[in-house]
Amino acid sequence: MKDYKTGAVTSQVRSQRSWLIFLSGISLILISAWLILSTPENNAADGLASDIPKADIPTTLQESAIEYTADSVKLDISNVIEESTVNDSELNDVIEITPHVIAPDSENLIVDESLSESIEQQTNKSLQTVTVKTGDSLALIFSRLGLSPRSLYNIMSIGKEVSRLKKLRPGQILNFHINENELNKLEYEVNLTNSLLITKQDGKFQAELIHEELEPLVKHAKAVINDSLFLSGKRAGLSDKLIMQLVSIYGWDIDFALDIREGDSFTLIYEEQYKDGVKVADGPIIAAEFINRGTPLRALRYTHEDGRHDYYAENGDAMRKAFLRTPVELARISSRFNLKRKHPILNRIRAHKGVDYAASTGTPIKATGDGTVALAGKKGGYGRTIVLKHGGKYSTLYAHLHKYARGVRTGKRVKQGQVIGYVGKSGLATGPHLHYEFRVNGVHRNPLTVKLPKVESINKKALPEFLQTINPMIAELDRLTGKRALASQQTEESPKQLSALMEDG
Ligand SMILES: [Zn+2]
């Protein structure tokens, strides 16, 4: 729309210019005189357009546009909402050149007339759909619609139910049913499942919260990663939101920036949410299997009795992982996290971005969380050092080691509490101690005070219930990944063959 209008203006200017060129043949003086007269006029028009505060124009125009479209509202409400939100910018653009600036032009007049006409029709009885904008409040919206502050006051004094109206968010939708400038009914979509209905009965406003369950539809997707997780997910028909959900479920076990290999794959069972037959939301993922470098990891969504939900492995271990606060038991803290510490050996101010635990040489050091060994080797003043990555977000560092525990090498996986090395004084150290660092998204945090994610696995008492609940999900994952076919094949083998198979394994 804007391009068209600007185009029209430019071609107008262009024809003016060619006229000027034609004139130049007759008299140069005339041209310059004309230029002096005509250019400021054009500039003045432009200046006027930019002088009109942009924030004000859309407000009035948007409202009139809403009123305009509201005329046909009874036929198609969704259309109105879409027009009032999606076309905002287009409308703003038009306004800048049309009604305020440019001289009457038949095309623009038609738009204006139809707008004002519908506004008049609307004043008697109407449904007006308002999409909340940034900086909006109910008071502002009431005044824009010409509704009395009294009615707003009466609504707000209903009580607790209407307190939601104080927290309007941009993009939310309010339906005003107005009769002769009096508000009869107000519908407010609080979220996808709740709406607030305010009605006037016998001159008094009443509020009611209406809850509407969404209808979930279970879907599944499968993908082999041959470029990026994101692109593969997209090809499998997943939305950005679902891909991000997958990343966050597995983020503790897999570093999606470093661990993903070509040929990794995933299978997802997830929900799509529908309201009145229209898809309104994606998710949640209800079960997943991710095969990273040949190792399958399953995650199942489980809702507890109190409504909490989280993702768990098949054995009830939480997918989110907690951290141990300290990597060495019964050790004395000899130096704390301090960004302005004087270094004991270098004797100058040097931030101490970790905690020192004084302990005798050979004291075992534990991995504070499940993770992958990103480094087990010498690292300057740190001496023998281990860096563990715990998914993509967290990493821990253990320095001045006397030696590494057996089998702890770069690339190996370690479990929380597993001994990874032993206290020593390698590198720049005055005596045997462990220097321990904790990073969140690459930033050093105080290991003693950083807020650690707290996660509980399914406890023994709740385990039977958990296993029963996840059983159908596991069966479905088995079916989708072809595991069930394999299992039934094996049971069909004769006992002899089976034992042979087992010996081979
Ligand atoms: Zn230290």
Quaternary organisation of the protein chains:
single chain
Estimated radius of gyration: 34 Å
- How many domains in all? 4
Helix/strand class: alpha+beta
**Would you give the CATH topology of the largest domain?**
Nuclear Transport Factor 2, Chain: A
The number of distinct β-strands equals 20
Ligands in the structure?
Answer: zinc ion
Tags for this model:
single chain, 505 residues, alpha+beta, Nuclear Transport Factor 2, Chain: A, 10-stranded antiparallel sheet, 5-stranded antiparallel sheet, 13 helices, disordered N terminus, disordered C terminus, binds zinc ion
Give a structural overview.
This protein is α+β, with helices and mostly antiparallel strands. It folds into four domains: 2-51; 61-211, Nuclear Transport Factor 2, Chain: A (Roll), CATH 3.10.450; 218-320 and 459-505, Roll (Nuclear Transport Factor 2, Chain: A), CATH 3.10.450; 332-445, Glucose Permease (Domain IIA). It is built from 13 helices and 20 strands. The chain has helices at 2-26, 28-51, 56-70, 77-86, 88-97, 106-122, 138-144, 149-156, 229-235, 240-250, 463-481, 483-492, 495-504; strands at residues 125-131, 173-179, 182-189, 194-201, 204-211, 215-224, 265-275, 278-292, 295-303, 309-312, 332-335, 355-358, 364-366, 371-378, 384-390, 394-404, 413-414, 419-423, 433-440, 443-445. Strands 11, 12, 13, 14, 15, 16, 17, 18, 19 and 20 form a ten-stranded antiparallel sheet that branches. The chain has a five-stranded antiparallel sheet with strand order 1-2-3-4-5. The radius of gyration is 34 Å and the shape is extended. It starts with a helix and ends with a helix. The model is unreliable at 1-15, 20-123 and 487-505 (pLDDT under 50). The structure holds zinc ion.
